[in-house]
Design goal:
The complex is a heterodimer of chains A (319) and B (432).
Chain A lengths: L16 H14 L17 E6 L5 H12 L3 E6 L11 H10 L4 E6 L4 H8 L3 E7 L5 H15 L6 E5 L6 H12 L3 E5 L15 E3 L2 H7 L2 E4 L4 H5 L6 H8 L3 H5 L6 E3 L12 H4 L6 H19 L16
Parallel strand pairs in A: 1-2, 1-3, 3-4, 5-6, 5-8, 6-7, 8-9
Chain B lengths: L1 E11 L4 E10 L2 E6 L14 E4 L4 E4 L1 E6 L12 H10 L2 E6 L10 H14 L3 E6 L13 H6 L4 E3 L8 H14 L3 E3 L4 H4 L4 E2 L2 H6 L3 E2 L1 H18 L3 E3 L5 H12 L4 E5 L1 H5 L21 H13 L4 E2 L8 H4 L16 H10 L6 H15 L15 E11 L18 E11 L2 E5 L3
Parallel strand pairs in B: 1-4, 1-5, 6-7, 7-8, 8-9, 9-10, 10-13, 11-12, 13-14, 14-15
Antiparallel strand pairs in B: 1-2, 2-3, 5-16, 16-17, 17-18
Classes of the chains: A alpha/beta (319), B alpha/beta (432).
Chain lengths: 319, 432
């Protein structure tokens, strides 16, 4: 069976509009599985999936694991600290050894940009990128789009501004490619020292001031600001960052319309986002987490060779 | 010992020669160039070896002023013998070996070792380059005088920038004493820190930290100004940006004692070659944009950039076979340089064949004060015979170098070495 997404999901830049549409449409009916008392369908029974996490992750790892388990796959988690990677084994050797155990898919999170491509070029199994360095985090981009689509019933023409450390953000890149392919208007806002110097060549609007971004946008995707950026000298202080770029209720209330707030987590409350915004009525941050499981189920299903029209039947005979 | 290269197109820009003729070599020297030399009566009791060069180009041997031969320290990656054999196969009769070995080639004994290993290999000539600073640490000046005495032809901390402007000033002044160039790795280290490729659209797409063009240009202008201050000869290595070209043009207009080199890969490839994290397209300075490539081509044609040098940098496959940011910089170049230059410069009419030979042979000899680079009577018989029209497919498995790290793998290129003669001896002959 030829898979509609090809062998791997490495990023959204290389997907077509139709493929993204397919994933989102496939995810939609799969949401319901997680709402059942018995959260399990037999779709991936017999498939073996390795979650290869070279970087610490709670949300993404757990989300993938639930998606896999709810589709009845056999899963193994490998974290870099407990593996032979810490004994100096190369990435390619690690992968080849895993594959020698006859696995079907690898979900990889790695600190180096391109690690998922590297793996995909060298093993037969399906590879899903769960975040590689500062490159892409495609399932995050997909779940952000699913959440926005739920809320606005459309993506075309939607104005989405990504706020914060775009330079180092794989979430930002996946959102830019994905949203642009789906016809949304994308902007970025942040200190110039945290925006890529080539940002103007990507067809996105650039706002220097967050007030102007709020004025323009239908939704803000607020990126996590990592403490290391301050230590590396990209910005002078978290305090000033909050004062200039922090998303506060005060700033949102000055906008003429309601602004939907996304955040890929984990949040630094009081730095890039204030608690009354994160927990406020226009926050869809927990919806993102819920949708994450459905999106990952859809990706697993489609990569395993599943057909889009069968997605509904993939839910099993529980209805 | 007589050798006659018969009936080739003899191209020697050092004498403005471009004609079909025979080249007679006697006892390691160019004896004569003319018609019918193979038929002239043999005066000595030895009959000459005659090589038919019909349809081929006979030129002064190519000279590479910048390569890394890894010995001592990384003999599993390259040795002076394998590097010199690769050079010969690429049509190079002489190469200059950079001192970033382990231990660093920063004293007369180390320089002497390189020279001795090269003699033992008896392939292309290998001229050692000594380090500017002890251990390439950028702190204490190395003993240029003794290194020159042992055979060094230049000094360089290549691979690392000389961070201290004061040390670079002293190096330029001190090098004047011995009439040697200071070969300069231009990289402002704080700006380039952690960079894995050119900073621009592609680096943003791939999520890789970029190295801006300015990291090179800042050091290029700093060191040209120091050359102006000292009167020393600054030789700017592996120039890669349009901005550097403009700065060099300015420097030469000012009468500054500056020369510059560009690598075949910077004249042929752009950052797009990185593709999906291909580590064979990772080097420092990185592949840049088409605008840079075009500026570099124009500069090497008009002489703003004096020479083409390979920056041949072999690495073990295990080192390259890894995550892009962690893979080492550098590609092999000795065995593809001629074909890359012919394909992208001569075939595409950027420059003429005599101009290319000048940038690969005559001018390198002149600016580094090396023998060779000419077929004048009495010159050392360092000669390259090549076919400028032969197409061949790059297959790294067939290289003489131990390195397999080339971005040209599988490409069909034009221009191939047939015979390489060093000191009147045939050191390479193409298999049929």
């Amino acid at each position: 069976m030829t898979a509609p997404l090809g062998k791997d999901l490495l990023g959204l830049e290389s997907l077509s509009t139709d493929q993204i549409q397919l994933i989102l449409d496939t995810a939609e009916p799969l949401k319901e599985i997680s709402e059942r008392a018995i959260k399990k369908v037999p779709t991936l029974r017999g498939a073996t999936i390795v979650n290869l996490f070279f970087e610490a992750s709670t949300r993404t790892r757990v989300s993938f694991e639930f998606a896999e388990k709810r589709m009845s796959a056999d899963t193994v988690n490998v974290a870099s600290s407990g593996s032979s990677v810490s004994k100096g084994e190369t990435l390619v050797d690690t992968a080849r050894n895993l594959e020698a155990m006859r696995i079907d898919m690898v979900v990889i999170r790695h600190g180096a940009s391109g690690a998922a491509h590297f793996l995909a070029q060298r093993i037969e199994s399906n590879v899903i990128n769960a975040g590689d360095g500062t490159h892409e985090h495609p399932t995050q981009g997909l779940l952000d789009m699913l959440t926005l689509r739920d809320r606005f019933k459309r993506l075309k023409g939607l104005k989405v501004c990504i706020v914060g450390d775009v330079l180092h953000s794989r979430v930002a890149r996946s959102n830019i490619w994905g949203l642009q392919k789906m016809g949304a208007e994308v902007a970025v806002c942040g200190p110039r020292s945290l925006l890529p110097s080539a940002i103007n060549e990507f067809g996105v609007k650039v706002f220097d001031r967050v007030e102007a971004a709020i004025e323009w946008a239908d939704a803000l995707n607020v990126l996590r600001l990592q403490l290391e950026r301050m230590q590396a000298g990209y910005i002078p202080s978290l305090r000033e960052y909050n004062r200039v770029f922090g998303i506060s209720r005060d700033r949102l209330e000055r906008a003429k319309k309601d602004i939907v707030i996304l955040h890929p987590g984990p949040m630094n409350r009081g730095v890039e986002i204030d608690s009354d915004v994160a927990d406020g009525p226009f926050s869809v941050i927990l919806d993102q987490v819920t949708n994450g499981v459905a999106v990952r189920m859809a990706v697993l299903y489609l990569l395993s060779g599943g057909k889009a029209e069968l997605a509904v039947s993939a839910k099993g005979g529980g209805e | 010992m007589r050798l006659i290269l018969k009936g080739g197109r003899v191209v020697d820009p050092s004498q403005n020669r471009d004609e079909v003729a025979d080249v007679a070599i006697v006892d390691g020297k160019i004896d004569s160039i003319g018609r019918g030399l193979a038929e002239s009566p043999v005066t000595s009791h030895q009959s000459p070896e005659v090589i038919d060069c019909t349809g081929l180009v006979v030129s002064p041997g190519f000279i590479d002023v910048h390569c890394h031969l890894r010995e001592p320290g990384r003999e599993e990656v390259e040795t002076i013998a394998t590097g010199a054999a690769a050079a010969a196969a690429g049509g190079f009769t002489a190469v200059c070996a950079m001192p970033n070995t382990d231990p660093v080639t920063d004293n007369q004994a180390a320089v002497g070792f390189v020279a001795r290993q090269a003699q033992r290999a008896a392939m292309a000539r290998v001229y050692p380059i000594g380090a500017i600073s002890i251990g390439q640490k950028g702190q204490t000046l190395a003993e240029f005088g003794e290194m020159v005495g042992a055979g060094a032809v230049a000094v360089s901390d290549d691979g690392k920038p000389v961070v201290s402007a004061q040390l670079m000033r002293t190096a330029l002044e001190y090098a004047r004493t011995f009439n040697i160039p200071v070969a300069d790795h231009c990289e402002e280290p704080t700006l380039a820190h952690g960079g894995a490729m050119n900073e621009g659209i592609v680096s943003m797409r791939l999520g890789l930290k970029g190295i801006p063009a300015e990291a090179e240009e800042i050091m290029a202008i700093r060191d040209m100004l120091l050359a102006r201050l000292t009167g020393g000869h600054i030789h700017l290595c592996h120039m890669s940006t349009k901005g550097s070209v403009a700065l060099i043009r300015w420097g030469k207009d000012q009468g500054i004692n500056v020369t510059a080199e560009v690598c075949p890969h910077h004249l042929s490839l752009t950052e797009d070659a990185v593709g999906n994290y291909d580590t064979h397209a990772k080097m420092n300075p990185p592949l840049r944009t088409m605008a840079d490539v075009e500026a570099l081509r124009a500069a090497v044609k008009d002489g703003t950039i004096d020479v083409i040098a390979t920056d041949h940098a072999p690495h073990h496959n295990d080192e390259k076979e890894r995550e892009f940011a962690d893979a080492p910089n550098g590609i092999v170049g000795l065995e593809t340089a001629l074909a890359v230059n012919v394909t992208w410069l001569v075939k595409s009419k950027v420059m003429t064949l005599p101009q290319l030979i000048d940038r690969m042979s005559c001018t390198p000899a002149r600016i580094f004060h090396l023998p060779g680079g000419s077929l004048a009577k009495g010159a050392p018989a360092d000669v390259t015979v090549f076919d400028p029209t032969a197409d061949w497919k790059v297959d790294a498995a067939r290289f003489r170098t131990k390195g397999r790290n080339t971005p040209y793998q599988g490409m069909t290129l034009t221009g191939r070495t047939h015979v390489t003669v060093v000191d009147g001896r045939i050191v390479f002959r193409a298999p049929n």
